[in-house]
Amino acid sequence: MELPTDDIRFQMELEFIQCLASPSYLNRMTMLVHMYFMRLLNVDLAINKYFDNPAFLNYLKYLKYWKKPEYSRYINYPHALTFLDLLDDEKFRQMIAHDNFRDLVHQQQGLHWMHAAKNRVKAMAANTPTLE
């Protein structure tokens, strides 16, 4: 098997990191195996619960370099980095497998986006000079 070039690896890891911003994706990770991870670490297709797989957890730790500014500037969904940190917590990994918890996290994420956008608009309006 040929390993990806640095450019391809960068793109694949960026895509994977951004998928972590989706609570639904995290929920399905308890059943699915990411193709890049499979190829890179030779993970068997039969593995379903790979949050229990130490090799996968090490892969998530490796991906923490995306938190550095020179890499994070490419990320469109900064929640991905928050979820990357949350995946360190075994309790979170267990809970995200449950549909109700996934839905709650998704709802809270949506509320954050909604209010963050309103707050940015208010802040911009407050900083806009008035013509007198």
Backbone shape: flat
Largest sheet: none
Low-confidence stretches: 42-47
Return the string of H and E elements: HHHHHHHH
Number of domains: 1
Number of separate strands: 0
Structural class: mainly alpha
Roughly how many Å is the radius of gyration?
A: 18 Å
Strand content: under 5%
The percent range for helix content is: 55-70%
Brief synopsis:
By secondary structure, the chain is mainly alpha-helical.
Describe this structure in words.
It holds the Pfam family Med31. It comes from Aphanomyces stellatus. Component of the Mediator complex. This is Mediator of RNA polymerase II transcription subunit 31. The chain has 132 residues and is mainly alpha-helical. It has one domain (6-127). 63% of the residues lie in helices and 0% in strands. It is built from 8 helices and no strands. It has helices at residues 6-19, 23-28, 35-41, 54-62, 69-72, 79-86, 90-95, 99-127. The longest helix has 29 residues, at 99-127. The termini are far apart. Mean pLDDT is 80; it is low at 42-47.
List the helices and strands and how they pair.
Blueprint: H1 6-19, H2 23-28, H3 35-41, H4 54-62, H5 69-72, H6 79-86, H7 90-95, H8 99-127
Main location: nucleus
Keywords: Activator, Nucleus, Transcription, Transcription regulation
GO molecular function: transcription coregulator activity
